[in-house]
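User: Predict the structure for this protein chain, please.
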Amino acid sequence: MFTGIITGVGRIQRIEDLGNTAAHGKRLHIDTPAGYLDDVGLGDSIALNGACMTVTSFDAPANRFTIDISVESLTKTSGLDQPGPINLEKALRAHDRLGGHIVSGHVDGIGHVLRFEMVGESWLLQIQIPPALAKFLAYKGSITVNGVSLTVNKVLDNPQGCVIDINLIPHTIDNTALGQLAAQSSVNLEIDLIARYCERMLSREPAPT
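Assistant: Here is the predicted structure, written as structure tokens:
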């Protein structure tokens, strides 16, 4: 489990093929901030742009670790198939503060940035949400974008699903990789866990008697 509070911005430094066919996945070599891996062990979970992955090797003095990612995960996520900056979050511990919201690290779908521009002292992030996820979005509700817990400020339904507006304060821009986004960027989305369960309970037909 995670909270959507980014604990470091890393960089996918190198991508290695795990085989020579389309069925083989990739090995990602990821650089981290100094000291980031001091409390990390082999097999630990770290979310990469919101996708929970397993540490397969690490070199703490060199501030680098690797993860193996399957073809299935590559097709269901964005931003994990090329070098570049990436949001990192270590798994939640029982005594940690829940500063964002409950996040599973499972990407539910891919959104597309429509606008990303400065408005006053903050930034407006506008995202097209796919139809399958649109029903889970609500004004002042939570959503995870590339692993970052964010608050929805506006929801506008459209034939393609819905468009949401999010306000990003300068601190978020400075301490995550979201500042690298631009119009047409793809982003990983995870809907709020509570919304998922509410939809299931409300939509399920009663069992026949």
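The first strand starts at residue 8 and ends at 17.
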